[in-house]
């Protein structure tokens, strides 16, 4: 047995695997962060993406995730209150941004473009489960556009699905996460003034299931590392 093979076997025997439940809006930014973390530590991170609200319910009911990354502060705080997550691990590591996005030949001069007769459908995430959906609703109400575009709204189960509606041209315009639009690199977008909706704080928390795993704490810390912050800025997030 070669020395290299022996070292690999030893390293593998000490590696650990954690499961992460993450808001779908964080997909493109989280993947390179996970890759770098695995490279540096030798540990493995298995991630599932979906609506924050859906993961909240699953974790509350005992789903074996070690870390929960939510696109708002409400769900992690509720898990902490119900003893399903560890208060000391609560970390706000990024703030997301909302944007108008289209793949069609529609000029996004201002928000009133949503009233155009050319715009038949507007995709948003389901506000019952997805923080970006709630932010989109706040934006529409704060600009006085809600009642005028209500009949145009189509809902994705999460913001990634709403984004896909626009990519496939099933919806004319989407009110979606900037972090999904930037890496896609196609279409037109108009970033929405953050003053028009509540802050979309991305929060990571260690669950009751993952609290005794050393790598869970290491990963939470890594989300605020210089490397992670650089990646987050690249994908349109604000970082502390």
TrEMBL record:
Family as reported in the entry's similarity comment: Belongs to the bacterial solute-binding protein ModA family.
Alphabetically ordered keywords of this record: Metal-binding, Molybdenum, Signal
Binding site for molybdate: 25, 52, 159
InterPro entries reported in the protein's UniProt record: AvModA-like_subst-bd (IPR044084), ModA (IPR005950), ModA/WtpA (IPR050682)
Domain of life: Bacteria
Pfam families: SBP_bac_11
Record-given protein name: Molybdate periplasmic binding protein
Oligomer status and interactors: The complex is composed of two ATP-binding proteins (ModC), two transmembrane proteins (ModB) and a solute-binding protein (ModA).
GO biological process: molybdate ion transport
PANTHER family linked: MOLYBDATE-BINDING PERIPLASMIC PROTEIN, TUNGSTATE_MOLYBDATE_CHROMATE-BINDING PROTEIN MODA
Record SUPFAM superfamilies: Periplasmic binding protein-like II
Organism whose genome encodes this protein: Aquifex aeolicus (strain VF5)
GO MF, any single term: tungstate binding
